[in-house]
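Re: your question from the hallway

Yes, I did run it. Sequences:
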Amino acid sequence: MNVLLDHLDLFRDGFIGTVSLTAASAALALILGVLIAGFRVSPVPPLRAFGTAWVTLLRNTPLTLLFLVAFFVLPQVLFPGISSYVLGVLALGFYTSSFVCEAVRSGISTVPLGQAEAARSLGMTFVQTLRMVVLPQATRTVLPPLSSIMIALTKNSAIAGAFNNPELFSVQKVLSDKGYNVMVIFVWVALAYLVLVFLISGFFRLLERRMEVAR
Amino acid sequence: MSSSVLFDSPGPKARARNRIYAVAGSAALLGLIAFIVYRLAAKGHLDGAMWDIFNYAGVRNSIAKGLVSTLEAFAIAGVLSLVLAVLLAVARLSDHRPVSWVATGVIELFRAVPLLITIYVLWVGFFTSDPLWAVVIGLTLYNGAVQAEVLRAGILAVPKGQSEAAYALGMSKTQVMTTVLIPQAVRSMLPTIVSQLVVTLKDTSLGFVITYEELLYAGRQMASTILVDGENPYVPVVLVFGAIYVAMCLALSALANWIEKRGRRAKTGIKVAEAQKAAPDMGGGAGPAT
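Structure:
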C-alpha cells in the first residue's frame, strides 16, 4: 500500500502516459487503417497491391522490431532529434493500423450486396459508395473486433515504456530498480491496466448499444 | 461482398482515369522509396563497407546464436503453452465449481496484463540470472491462457450428440474429453492455434527488454559494438533482422492457411476455423475477443 501512496505522482504520470500514448496511436491507427482498407478494395491495382503488402508486412513483424526501426532508422531518413513520444506513437500506430485495416475489410464484406449495388445503380462513384453507403453500415460489425484491437494497443503501449517513454511499465521498472517488492508494484500496475481495459470495453459496449439496429 | 461489387466494371473513361490513378499512386510510392534510399545513401548507410560486416564469421555466428536462442524460447514456450492450454480449458469446463473459477481467474488475469510486464516481473522476482525462463514462463502463461480460450471454443463447438453418444456407450468423463471432444476440437481449431503460435514467435522478441540474448538482442548488441567508419551499422542490422523475422512468421502463417484450406476440403467433421479472422490477437500481450 505504501508504495502506491508514496509514489502517487509517479503512478499518476504513468497512467496518463499510457492513456495518452494509447489515444494518440489509436487515432493514427484508425485513420491509416480505414484509408488502407479503402485501398485494398479499390479499383486501382497498384493501390490494392500496396494495401496487401502493408498488411502482410506489418502483421508479421514483431512490435519490438518496429520500435527499433522507428528509433534507429527513421531519424536517419527524416531528421535526428524526433521525440521518443512521437516515435513510439508512430511505431504503435503503424503496427495497429494493419489490424484495423483487416477488421474494416471484413466489416465491409458483411454489408449486404444489394446496398452497394443500389448505390452503384444510383450512379455513385466508388468513393461515394464506400463513404456514404458501405462504411457507415460496416461500422456496426467492426466495433467488436475494434474493441479488442484497442485493448491490445493499450497493453502493447507497455513496449514504448522500454523505449524512454514515461508510462505504466516504466513506473514498474523505476520502482523495482529502487528496491521495492516487485510483486506489490505488479499488483498496482496490473490493477491500473485492468481499469483501462474495463473502461475501453465499456465504452465500446456503449457504442454498440447506441448503434444497434434490427436487420 | 467481393470487392468488385463496390464499383462498376470500368468503361473507357473510367479505365483511363484508373490508369492515371495507378500511375500517380505508383509514382508516389516509388518516390517515397527513392527518397528513403537517397537519404540512407546520403548518410552512408548503403555503403559497401556497412554491409560488408555480414561477411565476417563472428557476425554470422552471433546471428546464428541469436536465431537458435529465439527458436529455443519459441519451442519450449510453444509446447508448454499448449500443455497449459489443455489443462486450463478442461479445468474451466469442469463440473467442479471451484476448479472452474480458479481456471477462469488465471485465464482472465494473464490475458489482461501486458506480457512485457509479466515477463519483467518474472525476471526481477524469480529468474534474475536466467532470463530464458522468464521469457518462456511469461509466454507460456499468456499464450496458455489465450490458447485455452481457443480450445474451449473448439470443445463447445463439438455437437452435443457426440458427447451424449459417448456417455451412452458408458464412457467416463475423462474418456469422453480425451477420446471424443478434444481430438475434434483440436482438429477444427488447428489454424487458429497455429496463428497464435505466430504471435508466440513474435513475442519472443520481448526478451530483448530483459536482456535475454535472442535474435533482436543479438542484433542490437552487434550494432552498438561494431564501428564502420566511426558509425554504428544500425540500418543494415535492423533491415536484415527484420527480414529474418518476417520470413519466419510468414512461413508459420502460410502453414496455418494451408491447414485451413486442407481442412475445408474434408466433408466430415465440424467446420474448420479461419486462420486469420478467428485470432484477432496482435501479440505483445494482446487479448482476443471472446
